[in-house]
Amino acid sequence: MEGTVEFDAVIGKDGKIDELHVVSGHPLLTGAAADAVRLWEYKVPIVNGRRAMIKTKITITFSLH
């Protein structure tokens, strides 16, 4: 199966996903995409000498090659 899954995410000050909400995507793909994204670790920006939380959009594309 091919398709795209889109998320709204909040990345915490520790660089890990704090919140993850599906915006769109086929139900058969959203679980696998969410599991993968939750394993990621982000480099968090420093703002005024402190780590900052980030709100972002994440897109995962599944394709057969």
Structural description of this entry:
- This protein is α+β, with helices and mostly antiparallel strands.
- Helix content is 20%, strand content 46%.
- It contains one helix and five strands.
- A hairpin with a 5-residue loop joins strand 1 and strand 2 (17-24).
Cα(first) to Cα(last) distance is: 11 Å
Q: CATH class, anyone?
A: Alpha Beta
Morphology call? elongated
Write down the oligomeric state.
single chain
Reported by name, the CATH topology is TolA/TonB C-terminal domain
Find the count of extended strands (DSSP E, 2+ residues).
Answer: 5
Q: Give the name of the CATH superfamily.
A: TonB
The domain count comes to 1
> Uncertain spans, ≥5 residues at pLDDT below 50?
none
Name the descriptors.
single chain, about 60 residues, alpha+beta, TolA/TonB C-terminal domain, two-stranded antiparallel sheet, 1 helix, 5 strands
Summarize the structure.
Helix content is 20%, strand content 46%. By secondary structure, it is an alpha+beta fold.
